Amino acid sequence: MGEFRLSDYSSDIVILSLLLFIGSAFTVPWVEVSVSSPRDFIYYMVLPWVVIIPLHEGLHALIARLFGARVRFGITTFGKLIIAPYTAVETPLTARRFIAVTLAPLSLSLIALALAWLLRSDFWALVYIFNTAGMVGDFIVTLALLRLPPDAEVVDRGEALVSSSGTLEPYPRWVSKALRIVLLAVLLVILARARIEVVVEYR
């Protein structure tokens, strides 16, 4: 029997979230967000999450319900850094169907990206960036599910996925070490290309 817990990959989740945040930000290079008032903070930093969280979890639940599954909503933590809502699928589903449930919120990223470009909207660009970075756990779960036979049944216990067919390990452990090197390299490239401007105003 294979068992998979996202909490075992908390460090990878943080690293991959940063990499996805950086990568998705590069796909909307024209975005400039200036927070100079409480209103700006709410509009750019709070309101996108008000949109993302119910839609993201709602898409998981919608696809699961279309497959006839019962769902349950909850909140979990990964280490001390991440507090995340989740949608638990309480009815056994095949790995193929579970992948569809897991990747459902990717449609939100695609729609937000399209709106960001069509409207040249910083708000929708942030929805796209935040949702994409927030899908790291979904991507890791998908990698684990892809190692199962498509018709293998998977049970979601909220904190863990369980299957009687095959292993539920998304990737070899050396990948976790490689991710740290990749993140360091990306940050060094960004720092090397960064431009710092100092503006002095005389009155």
Topology summary:
Layout: E1 2-4, H1 10-26, H2 38-66, E2 71-78, E3 82-89, E4 93-94, H3 95-103, H4 106-119, H5 122-133, H6 136-145, E5 153-156, E6 161-163, H7 174-193
Antiparallel strand pairs: 1-6, 2-3, 4-5, 5-6
Helix pairs in contact: 1-5, 1-7, 2-3, 2-5, 3-6, 4-5
Number of self-contained structural domains: 1
Helix and strand content put the structural class at alpha+beta
Hey, roughly how much beta strand do the residues contain? 5-15%
Mind telling me the C-alpha Rg?
A: 19 Å
> Total helix count?
7
* Helix content, binned percent: 40-55%
**In angstroms, what separates the terminal alpha carbons?**
72 Å
For the largest beta-sheet, the strand count, sense and barrel status come to:
4 strands, antiparallel
Q: What order do the SSEs take from the amino end to the carboxyl end, as H and E?
A: EHHEEEHHHHEEH
Major β-sheet strand ordering = 1-6-5-4
Low-confidence stretches: none
**Average residue-wise pLDDT:** 87
Q: What is the general shape?
A: globular
* Total strands: 6
Give a written overview of the molecule.
- With 203 residues, the chain is of the alpha+beta class.
- The chain has one domain (2-193).
- Helices cover 55% and strands 14% of the residues.
- It is built from seven helices and six strands; from the N terminus they run E-H-H-E-E-E-H-H-H-H-E-E-H.
- The strands form two sheets. It has a four-stranded antiparallel beta sheet with strand order 1-6-5-4. Strands 2-3 form a two-stranded antiparallel sheet.
- A hairpin with a 4-residue loop joins strand 5 (153-156) and strand 6.
